[in-house]
Amino acid sequence: CRKPVIPNNSFASNQIPEVEKESEPEEETDEDEGPAPVIVENESYVNLKKKISKRYDWQAKSVHAENAKICKQFRIKQASRQFQSILQERQSLPAWEERETILKLLSEHQVLVISGMTGCGKTTQIPQFILDDSLNGPPEKVANIICTQPRRISAISVAERVAKERTERVGLTVGYQIRLESVKSSATRLLYCTTGVLLRRLEGDTALQGVTHIIVDEVHERTEESDFLLLVLKDIVLLRPTLQVILMSATLNAELFSEYFSSCPIITIPGRTFPVDQFFLEDAIAVTRYVLQDGSPYMRSTKQMTKEKLRARRSRTAFEEVEEDLRLSLHLQPQDSVKDAVPDQQLDFKQLLARYKGLSKSVIKTMSIMDFEKVNLELIEALLEWIVDGKHSYPPGAILVFLPGLAEIKMLYEQLQSNSLFNNRRSHRCVVHPLHSSLSSEEQQAVFVKPPAGVTKIIISTNIAETSITIDDVVYVIDSGKMKEKRYDASKGMESLEDTFVSQANALQRKGRAGRVASGVCFHLFTSHHFNHQLLKQQLPEIQRVPLEQLCLRIKILEMFSTHNLQSVFSRLIEPPHTDSLRASKIRLRDLGALTPDEKLTPLGYHLASLPVDVRIGKLMLFGSIFRCLDPALTIAASLAFKSPFVSPWDKKEEANQKKLEFAYANSDYLALLRAYKGWQLSTKEGMRASYNYCRQNFLSGRVLQEMASLKRQFTELLSDIGFVKEGLRAREIEKRAQGGDGILDATGEEANSNAENPKLISAMLCAALYPNVVQVKSPEGKLQKTSAGAVRMQPKAEELKFVTKNDGYVHIHPSSVNYQVRHFDSPYLVYHEKIKTSRVFIRDCSVVSVYPLVLFGGGQVSVQLQRGEFIVSLDDGWIRFAAASHQVAELV
Ligand code: CDP
Ligand code: MG
Asked: Where does the record place Acidic residues bias (predicted)?
């Protein structure tokens, strides 16, 4: 062996060389204008940072002048009748009783924890106490408050509400800022923003110049971002003694936060709620039975239809399952009628329960093993029917249904629309509103509107209505017991959003939403046994269940931590995650080329830090845009982030796999996915029916494809936010469209999809994102077989091929992959995304890549050696090795 021709790592990482020379800083831009700057050829990192921090320069003089104006306007406004009448309403909120105490403690302490029941006025009132108090003082002392919210939708709705309470437009003294959208002005002194927005601001302005108060709302939710923000604030309060910090939480764990901030004072706002009757699944079934009786409106209108619908699906009806379950719990013989065993229609619900009390336990037993997912929506419909029907002793009021996510909300909404009692256009008795984070703010406001007398408002919501949004007139709560939670998915080695059971704390919080104006009722669609024995007391903090790559990058991008050791920063978090988890994340970041071995951020790492997606998906998005194959990269990224649209029903697996093979080319599941997606896109242009048929014929899930399309739009927005793509100028866009382009331009103004039809390049992008998830294909020498023409070497059989990964030894290709049963691959390497372990270890979707993309985009350590007149290129300690001719090496270099 000779000395390496090329030093190790010379083209391994994705580093852009840092330019030492400082160039003139550019003109200052308004912070709301245009995307954040992108590193381009001759602009150094240093300049970039300067530019960002300059954006937040605080000009005290003009601020004081504006403050004087704001104070004057406030004094005039305070006297107005409208303001006074809203003020009266506000003063009835429990938070007002603590106003003086809060202001007094704030004048004595830098940090404060305030806890109180949801709806007591923390979010809307406390920031106003501080602001209004300061507006009655001198202009130099006017507060400038930032209040963070865990969700975009709450930042908007609260800002709008508070502006209304102040009888002004949102964007004046009260504003909001969320990613990609801000409504604020130079007069804004109370800004509601998402935690992410504040963290981004901290990247360029660690001292938070000009800000007097940071209020971190909903700290009890323990999101990764809010835990991290607390850590940052812990350091900033030492740097800025005049900055005041207030942590607001629901009535949970206030002591934990106080201890974290050197035992700062806690104020507890006493709650005022009405009692709520709590029922579990076993009780809910009793109601369903009641509804199911002959003669009830439910029986007449829905049962028949639902039965038909379900018969079409050739499955047992959900009711039949419930019926079976009830039969078991009632110890009935198969020939006995369940109907005879349920009480009369006239019975009051409470009486009904009394009769069922004795058998709750056995119901519980059977229910906990039953897959009640299927019955949930049917059960909810039946419960709604029971509530609206009004044959019970509870007062009329709005109904709030908690479901895990958007898909379930859509499903229930559609199901209800086909029931004449709930149909928004036909029914005069009900109005149904979905509520989730992707609604526009007008749609969102609709949920607060009180319906006319005799009309029941039904809100179907995610856990957004749990603490962030309070709807006052709710009397009934139906809790599906499920929510979406970010978790580390070991099979994918990345974060994924999963349906999980709520914790006891969530369930109680949901129940509490019913008792705001009068006593209420809550139905949990899980058994009391499940509640007591299976649910966690509290949700695990997000930081302890998600991969930590994003957080590592965010820490590194902050100037205050950029030179710190990651482990030391992590150990100071409020409840630090396990060190193994950090170690694994650091390795993944190094493999990706986002972090150097001495924990320095590479330029790739810098950009990944500002994309709030899994780092691998982020890398695929960035590379897709850099190499102008944006659209296919985003399609694949969306499917990696969500799931594959290919479905394989258990009784039609073969047929489904066969259909998938029709899309296959170049030995790649991902390229097959692109074809399938494109076909679906075309079919949607021909209408709903066509796209439905397309999905059915090709074993594709329309719902997954739709979700992917929406994710792709979000990804494009994120890229446009950091300047990696530009929506073309109008004229240019039209011109491009005429030429068949899609009008999306990359950072340099070129068509972002000019390479979209290059499968080799797309495979290379996959390599960049998925490395080191690579398997080597080891094929045995085929046997020699004598034929009339002489001895011929036969191709090995598919089952003779062996697949080996770097760390886990042999794996198998999953039967659903287009590469299952393939006998010959053009290159002996496959990249894959997901590894699953059942009877054996399988890799699911995979794609053949040739050696050059592996070396160029893999991000591993590369070396080249001259051996016996031949260049040997090797990657990661020789795990991947191949011989190359000198001109190829020259190309590589
Ligand atoms: O933060 P906390 O849960 O303690 O209460 P809040 O969000 O400040 O809400 C106080 C009151 O304002 C509640 O009665 C809400 O119903 C009402 N509110 C509203 O009507 N519209 C909004 N967008 C937000 C709050
Ligand atoms: Mg709140």
From this structure: 21-34
